[in-house]
Structures are given as structure tokens and as C-alpha cells.
Amino acid sequence: MATSVRRPKNPVNLDLRKAYADGHVALGLGAGVSQASGLPSWNELVCRLAEAPHNIGRKSAQTLLDAGYDATVLATVLRRKAESDDAFADLVREALYKDFSFEEAVGKSNHRRFVEHIRNTNPTLHAVGSMCGSLIEGERFRPNPRIRAVMTLNIDALLEMYTRARFRGRVLRTVERAAASASSSKIHSYHLHGYLVRKLASPSPEAASPSREARSQEADDRLVLTEQQYFDVVANANGFVNYTMLYLLREYRFLFVGLSMRDPNLRRALHLSFTERIRELEAEGETTAMATSRAARHWAIMVRRDAEIDAATTILLEVIGVKPLWVEAYPDIPALLQSLYESAGDQRWADVA
Q1: What is the pLDDT of residue 210?
Q2: Starting from the edge strand earliest in sequence, which strands make up the sheet with 253-257, in order?
Q3: DSSP string, 258-288
């Protein structure tokens, strides 16, 4: 049975409601969606990687972070300690899912228990997953036609696992690399920083690591964690990450959830999309002020901290065309998503939550 959620003090932005009703909304997701399930923040992930045998250790990793080193720089140091890309990917997978709060392997036999577990322990993931489904009748579901895409900077598979268990089938089509095929019947879920499933099958009990065939179900070779990997993304203007971000930002209006909005690749793409739209609107005869207002077309759910930080955050979002949707605390996020889901008048949260 679905648990009740806190009602937000302020209604969902009217412009967002209209965009959702018209089927123009996509979801942009970050680590905050998965953390309540025991998955780490980026800084915690590199600290866990540092704990691997023959690595620098958590204490040294934390010292570097405290000294101002970025997590991507620390990931570069840690990558040099691994024997190969595959070995590094296996270390990342182990660190990523180390404290995942559902210990059993997820399968059809325990789908109901897994859904209930996520519902009770990770309200944000539960709410985001609920947004992706729509009831047909009885126990039959389809992808929510009002959510046009999911773009995630997360490398975990939790959203895919949850939605498959909740809706008894796939409502998402994971797109983890340029070669991934499209699906006209599912919501495309774009993993821009790579994609690691919880556990890969080994070719035999004696095998030291999974085969390349087993690895084909994920995108461990597309991880974007180290400083060099970020540089490579920036340098490849027409590559999968940049092309996908710019295309999606132009086509849809994003609601960002669980993101600090400080990722440099995301901010760069938002800046390029925002300024391009302003130029085109000005070319159509709009004033600069009107063009700038119309080009600000995305939203980010942000938790209030203090007046000074919130004011700075608002500016840093507005300059890339994003409007903050402030909530007082993380438990308010599910209520906001519920309000949006039901705002069109023909969908009930109780049917999917």
C-alpha cells in the first residue's frame, strides 16, 4: 500500500504544470535520487575506491578532498592504481553498491518486497520511479506518456531495477552508449556518465572476472569519473554525451531532481542551449529581456539551506536558464512530484505509487 507523503507548502509552478500536461517534460537525475538506498555521493564514492587493496586509503583520500582537490582529480589518482579499465570498473561497481540496502539479488520472486523496501527507505527514488509509469487497467501499466525522457548522471541501475519491479515490465529503455537502439514504446533513459549493473554473471565459477559478453549489458567503458574522462567529453563536441545533452535540452523542458547542478558538463550544455535559444528568439524579433525570460525553460528542485547560499544558487541557476523550485527538506520532494503527476487531472498517484 502506498505511503502518504508531505504536501508542499507551495503549489507546483504553473508553467511546469502546463509543460507536463502538454507532454513536454523530461527528468534530469543525480546522485540524490539514489543516496537513501546506501549509494554514495561522488566524494564518498572516491573515498570508497581509495579503500581498495594497494590503494591510497580513505584517510589519504579525505585529506586530498579537504585540501581542495576535486573528486575527478582524486579519481584520476585512483584509476592509475588499477591494472586495467575493466579492473577499475569492477572496483567502481563494488564501491557503488557496497552498502546498497536491499541485500538480495532482485528478481521476479522478490519484486514485491523490493518495491516495498524502496517505498519505505528511499521516498525520492520511489517518487521518481512512480513518475515513469501510468496505469492502463488492473495490474497493467505503460510508460507515462507525459515523461518524454530521462537523462541521468548516475551510473547505477536503481531506477531501472525499481521501475521494472513496480510496473512488472520495462517502462524504461536504457541508452548507455551511441550504439543503443531506440524504442518507440518506452521512455529512453540516457546514462551519460556510464552504466553499471549491480552484479555481472561470470562465464564460469573459476573465472576471475566477467566476460566481455557479460559486460555488454552495461557501459563500464563509458564511465566519466576521472579528470581526463571529463576532458575527453568536452573535447568531443559531437560525441554521445554532448550531442545527447544538447538535443534533449532543446527538445524538452527538464525537471532536475537530486542534482547539485554543479556538474561542469551539464552546466556547459545548459549554457550553450540557453544562449542559443536567446539568440534565435532575438532573431525572431524578441527583445533581449523577453528572449532571456522565454529561454529560461527548465526547473531544478533544490532544498533550502540559508539565505546567502540560496541567493547565490538562484543566480547560478538563472544564468544557465534554470528556475529553482525550492523545498524546505528532502521529504518534500515526493509531494512535489505527486502534485505534478496529478496536475493534469487524468492520472492518480495512488495507481502508480
Answers
A1: 55
A2: 172-175, 187-191, 147-152, 25-29, 253-257, 298-303, 322-327
A3: S--S--HHHHHHHHHHHHHHHHHHHHTT--H
Residue 16, C-alpha cell as written in the block? 511546469
CA nearest neighbour of 198 among 180, 217, 181, 182: 217
In whole angstroms, give the CA distance from residue 337 to residue 339. 5
Sign of CA dihedral 62, 68, 72, 78: negative
Q: What values do phi and psi take at 7, rounded to 5?
A: -80, 130
Reported as a single tens digit per residue, the pLDDT across 166-178 is: 999 999 999 999 9
β-strands 187-191, 322-327 pairing: unpaired
Pairing of strands 25-29, 147-152: parallel
Query: What are the structural domain ranges in the chain?
Result: 14-35+122-208+221-352
pLDDT at position 325: 97
Measured CA distances, 338 to 2, 29, 92, 234, 256 (Å): 12, 17, 33, 36, 15
The answer to whether the beta carbons of residues 298 and 321 sit under 8 Å apart is yes
Q: Are strands 133-137 and 140-143 parallel, antiparallel or unpaired?
A: antiparallel
Q: Give the start-end residues of each E strand in 129-223.
A: 133-137, 140-143, 147-152, 172-175, 187-191
Residues 6 or more apart whose Cβ sits within 8 Å of residue 308: none
The grid coordinates of residue 56 equal 591510497
Q: Which grid coordinates are listed for 283?
A: 532573431
